[in-house]
Design goal:
two-stranded antiparallel ribbon; about 30% helix; alpha+beta
């Protein structure tokens, strides 16, 4: 007996052009909705990482003070000069220096000074080797905020001391050198030269913030806040162009990095992220109640 099998052909319906366009349109709409959320989440993560970087730098500053008779590294214009004798440190116990064996020695930047505290070995026999080493490794990673533009910025924290890529601006009143009537035009107070035991109001005294170099990116452009008047706040620096006090520079504020916010590291070791506005920044001090000598 023969069995006859019939083959049933099944037609498959293809998508029409209109249906494909509708699907593509829906996907594009979903992407347009999700991208801002993803961008916001990415910036939130970068902001947290930037604050964590500052926290590690603060801990390194505190560790440096513990190992250097209470002194943190210097920043800014060092008025007497940058040799150990000029820095009133002939035995090199307060600060860190670079130079060939036997000298002459000169003051290192904050990045070079903190490298050993961050677990990175650097060469200190020449400024060329020093700069090459601090522009890579852990120092490069921690001193560049992930929200900053790619590659970070290249400013100066101390003159000729081996500077590198850096996303942060430092408090020259606390970490700098200057007395009333000196070249730095400090009035009615003295800078503290990194002597941590002299820091007043450590919970509101900022040591570093997100910051762009004054005058734009460049190896010679400063990433430090100045203080030509006493009892300055970070708000005074923000209003510098039209403010009543000559403190800091509004150029240091990078308003786009964290969408109108700024991460700030304080002398007691904590980090805050605040809105860049006069009212909020007035609560953060640069040199409140600094002594005359």
């Amino acid at each position: 007996m023969r069995f006859k099998f019939s083959t049933v052909s099944r037609s498959r319906r293809a998508f029409t052009l209109v249906e494909l366009l509708v699907v593509i349109g829906i996907i594009a709409l979903l992407i347009s909705i999700l991208l801002p959320a993803l961008s916001k989440a990415r910036e939130s993560a970068n902001q947290i990482k930037c604050g964590a970087n500052q926290k590690q730098i603060l801990m390194a500053l505190i560790l440096h003070a513990n190992e250097h008779r209470g002194y943190m590294p210097l920043v800014g214009q060092i008025e007497p000069g940058t040799t150990p004798v000029a820095c009133q440190d002939p035995n090199q116990q307060k600060y860190d220096y670079y130079g060939p064996s036997g000298g002459p020695f000169n003051l290192m930047s904050i990045m070079g000074s903190l490298a050993p505290m961050l677990g990175q070995e650097i060469r200190t026999d020449s400024v060329a080797n020093l700069e090459k080493d601090i522009q890579q490794g852990t120092v490069r990673k921690l001193f560049v905020c992930p929200s900053d533009r790619e590659g970070g910025r290249f400013g100066a924290t101390v003159g000729g001391g081996g500077n590198g890529y850096n996303s942060y601006a430092f408090n020259e009143p606390a970490l700098g050198w200057g007395d009333p009537g000196g070249v730095n035009a400090v009035r009615n107070h003295s800078r503290l030269r990194g002597h941590a035991t002299r820091f007043p109001h450590s919970s509101t005294l900022m040591l570093l913030t997100d910051g762009a170099p004054r005058g734009g990116d460049g190896a010679g452009n400063w990433q430090v806040y100045w203080d030509h008047d006493k009892d300055c706040s970070l708000g005074d620096a923000f209003r510098q162009a039209g403010g009543s006090k000559d403190c800091g520079s509004t150029e240091l504020f990078d308003k786009t990095r964290h969408n109108g916010r700024i991460s700030i590291g304080f002398a007691d070791g904590h980090v805050e992220n605040v809105v860049i506005s006069g009212g909020d920044l007035d609560k953060i001090n640069l040199n409140a109640d600094f002594p005359l000598n």
